[in-house]
Amino acid sequence: MCAGDLVYLGGDGLYALGRKDGKVRWSDPDATAGDLSLASGTIAYSQRELLNVDAAGGAVLWSYGQKPGTDPRTVLVAEDVLAADERAVYALCSFMTLDDSGLPSSTVPQAPGIFALSHKDGSVLWSQHRKPDADRSVAAVLAGGMLLYTDSEKNLVARSTTTGEQLWFADTDAQALYQPATDGTRVFCSAAGTGLQAVTVADGKPAWVKTPPQKRIWFTPAAVGDGVAYSVLGGMTVTLDGTLYTPPAAPVLIAFQADSGAELWRLPLTDECTMTIAPFLVKDTLFVATNDKGLFAVDTKAHTLRWVFRNGISTDVAWQFATDGEQLIALQDDRVYALPLS
Fold first, then answer.
1. Dihedral (C-alpha) 50, 275, 196, 147: value to the nearest 10 degrees?
2. Distance between the two ends of the chain, CA-based, in angstroms?
3. 102: Cβ–Cβ under 8 A, 6 or more apart, which residues?
4. 71 near 56, Cβ under 8 Å?
5. pTM of the model
6. 150, 158 contact by CB (below 8 A)
7. pLDDT per residue over 22-69, tens digit each?
8. CA nearest to 327, candidates 27, 85, 17
9. 3-state secondary structure (DSSP) of residue 102
């Protein structure tokens, strides 16, 4: 993530780097910050508790660990941050029941939930229960006054950011860990098999769906911009039960009309891509990641490959991306790169 002159990188530690020189401005090496959300000059992430820190200097503005809910026998425990805006931080939580001595009940399991904390002071704005068997495999995005997230039952759920009320859910067969994307009108998520689909934000109705043409290839999560959704159709070499499986076809980047799903163009790629990571769009350059073959930079106007960046590292560590609108900031393992758009 980028804001002003700083770039924020999370995961095993939290680091704020100077956008122009890459020098560390502030850091929290002990943070486990894989769920960063940036809004209104602050960064929210979960550690042993949920923290909201000043983006400029890293000072903790407020924290939330566990506090009593509306029922004095219930405690709300913060879990992973999902998203944030100027009004609230949205996160998973658990409802913990206390026994007569005020300790966690040994007979009543924690119930999964979701809640919103005030961006200003961390107070609870609302909390809602999720289904009893819901897990923490959730990926979320904000659009149209809604928190939209995929869940463990392959649904796409829409909740009001004001009240937490569930407005609709769509049985999309979406993968929980595939990050959804939105253009404000539609949300783009995975589908059965793993296909790619667009769902209308206003009512949860399907707009279009794309199905992989053969086995062992699928679509990556989508990137969207200027009325176009981008996804790679491909596969990855894997070993299952001692048998090596290779993709039956080379990967191809496909551009779809966001509103109709009509294919606009496609570009074959030479190497296997990281199929769980969405392409990353900056202006008219689309970046496609491969764990061990570097990065492709694609010109979305000319539909051609601009360049390939290879760092010489062979690793299973996925890339993370951020941008200031003028360059790409790319992180892999313990290395950070600032790369041009063209």
1. 10
2. 21
3. none
4. no
5. 0.92
6. no
7. 899 998 887 777 788 999 999 999 878 899 999 999 999 999 988 877
8. 17
9. coil
Give me the sign of the Cα torsion angle 77, 78, 79, 82: positive
Token pair for residue 299? 């010109």
Token code pair at residue 10: 């999370």
d(CA 224, CA 187): 10
Taking 3-state DSSP, the helix, strand and coil percentages for the chain, each rounded to the nearest 5, stand at: 0, 55, 45
Task: Give the C-alpha separation, 166 to 9, whole Å.
Answer: 32
What pLDDT digit, counting tens, does each position of 239-286 carry?
A: 888 888 888 999 999 999 999 999 999 999 988 898 989 999 999 999
Q: Label residue 134 exposed, middle or buried (CB < 10 Å: 0-12, 13-18, 19+).
A: buried
Decide: helix, strand or coil at residue 4. coil
Measured CA to CA, the distance from residue 69 to residue 93 in angstroms comes to 11
Cα-based distances in Å from 236 to 244, 249, 271, 318: 11, 10, 10, 13
